[in-house]
Amino acid sequence: MTSVEEQLGLLRERRWNQAWALAPLGLLLLACAVSVATGPEDSSDQAATLGIAAALAVWHWWFVLMHPQWWDRWVWPMVGYFVGLLAFTSVLVLRDEAFQLFVPMCYVLAFTTLPGWPAYLGVVAANIPWLMIPGTEPRQLLVNLTLSTALAVLVGAMIRAMEREAIRRRKINSELVAVAAENARLHELLVEQARAAGVAGERARLAREIHDTVAQGLTGIVTQLEAIDERAVPPGPVRSRLEIAGGLARTSLVEVRRSIEALRPGPLQDARLGDAVRQAVTTWRDQYGVPATFTVTGTPQPLHSEVEVTVLRAAQETLSNVGRHAQARRVDVTLSYMEDVVVLDVCDDGTGFTPGETGGFGLTALRERVRALAGDVDIECAPGGGTAVSVTVPAIGVDR
């Protein structure tokens, strides 16, 4: 992830590199123009000189323009390039003094194309073309070369320092962008956790309110209706209406209790997930009279309430389906704590069913609930071969 400022900086850097790569060709073209304008009238000699200049241009084009990834990375190919550059330049200077215009570019290319300390050796070696100029006083030439080399080294070192500082700042900017992105992610996570906690708190409050008001009122109505002595009410319309009212009150009480169970985890308020599932298995075994075992594998760990409720509801729904449809003689329930997931396996030896004929609302609701947590429900079954239901959900801890 990169910021807009960082992208603009990289774009400017690429443009500067391209400009430095094209600058030698422009200066070489200028030297050729001066050579043609001031050179000897011998066309064959001038053509040979221009041919050498063209070879130098091709040499530079191949190593620098065609392979920019070699700069500051591959030492020996660029050392070979620089040696060839000095050789071509020296020959051109010997043939025509106009190509002295190109010699200062050798200092620049030493720092542009050579990595690390070889660049400083390249600056010293860039003086070789000057030595090819005939008729220069040695003492004056030595002074000039010493001053030009020192100046080139100073400028090159300053440019290298500025490049390192730019790279350091770009790296710091990248780290700041990454930190900002992480902070944004953590903020979103905190907001989501706060929202989930608010939803859970509101659902618990609604469950308490319904239990303390509507459920208690319906319980009282049912109790009062059941307390009426049948002998005190003769058969007729009145008794019929009382029986209907009692039935409606009982049905409404069942629905209210079901709504309360849907609003709060129930057994998970006072028990861990393993204990809650064990209690559900024990209750189911007592209700249907079918042998059922419960096993916990792995290291139990505190999980997010939504994960625990989903696993518990999956156990209850699956056991309910076994009790109503499977005609099983044995049921095995396993709760497995793994590194990043929690797996609930419910296996029975019942009648099974044909895959694809699982369109019941309970199983559909279970799939939707598990998928809301990025989990998965896997069912293996065959007619007469029993059924194995595996529910896998992420092990989201309470501290996340």
Automatic annotation (TrEMBL):
Write out the entry's keywords from A to Z.
Answer: Kinase, Membrane, Transferase, Transmembrane, Transmembrane helix, Two-component regulatory system
Q: Which GO terms describe its cellular component?
A: membrane
What InterPro entries has UniProt attached to this entry?
HATPase_C_sf (IPR036890), HATPase_dom (IPR003594), Sensor_HK_TwoCompSys (IPR050482), Sig_transdc_His_kin_sub3_dim/P (IPR011712), Sig_transdc_His_kinase_ChrS (IPR017205)
- Histidine kinase/HSP90-like ATPase domain residues are 306-397
Pfam families for this protein: HATPase_c, HisKA_3
List GO molecular-function terms, semicolon-separated. phosphorelay sensor kinase activity; protein dimerization activity
Residue ranges spanning the membrane: these are 20-39, 46-62, 74-94, 101-121, 141-161
Q: Which PANTHER family match?
A: NITRATE/NITRITE SENSOR PROTEIN NARX-RELATED (PTHR24421), SENSORY TRANSDUCTION HISTIDINE KINASE (PTHR24421:SF62)
Q: What is this protein called?
A: Signal transduction histidine kinase
**Record organism:** Saccharothrix ecbatanensis
Source taxonomy: Bacteria, Bacillati, Actinomycetota, Actinomycetes, Pseudonocardiales
